[in-house]
Amino acid sequence: MNETRHHWLKISKEVTADYPVLSGELTTDYVVIGGGLSGLNAAIELIRLGASVVVLEQDRIGQAASGRNNGQVIPHHSKASPREMEQWLGAARGERYNGLVASAPAKLFELIDHYDIRCDSVRNGWMQACHSRQALDRGRTFYEQWKAFGARVEWLDRDALAARMGSVMYPGGWKALHAGHLNPYALCCGLARGAVSDGVRLYENSPATAIVRDGSRWRVRTPVGEVSAKGVLVMTNALTGDFWPGLRRALIPVRIYQVATEPLNEAQRRTVLPGNEGVSDTRKDLFACRYDSEGRLEAIGAHTLWHDAAARGQAAVMAKFRAVFPQLAGLKSAEYWEGTLAAVPDRIPRLMRLAPNLLFAGVYSGRGVAMSTVWGPCAARLLAGAATEADMPVPVTPLRQIHSHGVAVRMAGLIHPWHRLTDKVEAAFAGR
């Protein structure tokens, strides 16, 4: 990863530590492969269960998707409504899964407070702006079902959303009051600091190259080291390597970019997201943005073709800003950076038992900041025997590879023009 393109690193107030490279041989109870948000949360949970833990990170902490994302803490499914989740998973598991999603922000904010993580966390909520009448009906379903579940949500009609957002282009939407946003890189660094202070042994620039069985234990090999453990938890997600046969075909890597504007002045901030919430709209060609600690707006995007990516990405995001917030007509972009997240077609995170005492957990399809906080501990408790498969929010499966994986990966990279077209058709025929 190119740190010079990493905006969150530049503005982070959290201490950035240097962790050693694994060399030689170690013995531990559990190895966690992947030092992102999922892996760090899992390691902290294993320590709390009384185990010894080694975390292996292939790069530097915060250099992959965990530290490069938009930093929105969202207590809502990537696609489904709460009731649909119960239909897909069954009543008991679905209710448990919905409960995890709803509770994730509070648990994350508790961790931030516990370790005194300086990640600029803002706890003013998250809004979903509905771009068409059809999307508004769907948004109303989300709001009503989360309200019935007991979540702290609010319905926003056209005028209410316009006042909260500073844009008149949406017919309405809803808000999760218990959500927020933060600097994800600083969060990673703070969680790493907290994990190490609790007793986790953390190694950077130590990619797993192989996992091999050694009697009743596992040996995880890196380029110049090896760890022996009774259990292994793989939480590598989008940057999963070739250390386990076929694992990379269980997920789809999705390349995205982000753009930060120049800082808004005080007058502009009074008219655009004056309450400092995060916001995402319902277009398939997603528009999502929030302020950072410097008063810049941060937004995400994706290309179909990645030539001249920085210039084209900045132009595309600023065009969206001008359409959504006409009062920002003169605002300019200032930063561009990229990252890769992991997705699956049903957008439900995975718990896969690859072999005895060897689990894979993760794949959040764009909801990882909040979900990693609860998913990592779930997987940790399962691996350590503190919970059973029946306690899990989703079925624990063997390795689940994506059918026609190569085609699915190519389609994920080519789907954005189709998304833009369907957004335009829906807006034209359904009406805003």
Automatic annotation (TrEMBL):
Keyword annotations from UniProtKB, A to Z: Oxidoreductase
FAD dependent oxidoreductase domain location: 29-380
Domain of life: Bacteria
Name of the protein this chain belongs to: Glycine/D-amino acid oxidase-like deaminating enzyme
